[in-house]
Write a structure and sequence with these properties.
Helix content: 10-25%
Strand content: 35-45%
Number of domains: 1
Distance between the termini: 5 Å
Largest sheet: 4 strands, antiparallel
Length: about 110
């Protein structure tokens, strides 16, 4: 089991995260690609539901290096082809929502 910390440094990213209720989830899709861990991050809408969310809003993809530090963050625009990555394991928030914005976010790959 690996504990991953994602540091959100961009002010606009922190502001983006702060706008959403913490019912939204980290995407539970991940895959090892040439030693790089990749995680899909997206706001989860209770109104739309998970399966209806794709294509409604941008989805963000975070890439981690071998030390599990984020080295890239990309945005996939609505209407793009659904990702074909297999689920590697559950990803969960380990911190209280009010304490994580602008700090290290602990992620866990199980």
């Amino acid at each position: 089991m690996k504990h991953v910390r994602l540091r959100i440094e961009k002010k606009e990213w922190r502001a983006y995260l702060a706008r959403y209720p913490w019912e939204w989830l980290l995407g539970t899709y991940g895959k090892e690609m040439e030693g790089k861990a990749m995680v899909f991050l997206f706001p989860f809408s209770l109104k739309l539901g998970f399966h209806n969310y794709w294509g409604k809003s941008p989805i963000y993809v975070a890439f981690f290096d071998e030390n599990y530090r984020i080295f890239a963050l990309e945005k996939m625009l609505p209407g793009t082809k659904s990702p074909s990555y297999k689920c590697k394991g559950a990803i969960e928030w380990l911190s209280d929502p009010g304490d994580v914005v602008g700090k290290h976010l602990k992620l866990i790959f199980s």
